[in-house]
Amino acid sequence: MNMSRESTQNNANQINSEFALIRVHSRLAAVLLVLLAIAGCRSRVIRVSLTNTSEQPLSAIVVDYPNATFGVNTLAPGKTFQYTIKPLATGMLKIQFTDANGRVHSVPGPGVKKGQEGTIAIRINQDSASAASALEQ
User: Fold this and answer.
1) Neighbours of 3 (CB within 10 A)
2) Based on the structure, what is the number of domains in the chain?
3) Are 37 and 50 contained in the same domain?
4) Which of 52, 109, 110, 126 could form a disulfide with 133 if both were Cys (CB 3.0 to 4.6 A apart)?
């Protein structure tokens, strides 16, 4: 009788060990699947920086890009405003700003395409703006 109980107990312990091992492997597989999904679902964005290179504040700075717009109310001398965009179409950026004397300026910016990523650095003074881009498809 004792042999039968010991055998049954050993079988039960072995089954519990196998289930525990399956649970560990299932959890590990789930973690790996989540990590692979995160790594593969990276969003392609462009980081845009607006820098006031002048000695006076700028105001009403607006950047238009295909299908969207962003901006900042005021930008103090020497300060930088950063924003991330995700172009959904192809087209040119348009930069508009108001100088310290209240004059509105409009300047064309670089072109962007859907799916691009990288950076665009826009430097603005009281008279104009210039942009340097490092973009890739």
Assistant:
1) 7
2) 2
3) no
4) 110
CATH of the domain at 103: 2.60.40.2890
Token pair listed for 26: 């299932």
- Closest Cα partner for 43 from 99, 128, 115? 115
Same domain, 105 and 50: yes
Tens digits of pLDDT across the chain (137 residues): 555 666 666 665 666 666 555 665 566 556 666 666 665 566 789 999 999 999 999 999 999 999 999 999 999 999 999 999 999 999 999 999 999 999 999 999 999 999 999 999 999 999 999 999 999 98
| Domain boundaries, position 2 | 1-42
Check: CB of residue 58 under 8 Å from CB of residue 98. Answer: yes
Structure tokens at 54: 């002048």
Opening angle at CA 84, ends 83 and 89, nearest 5: 125
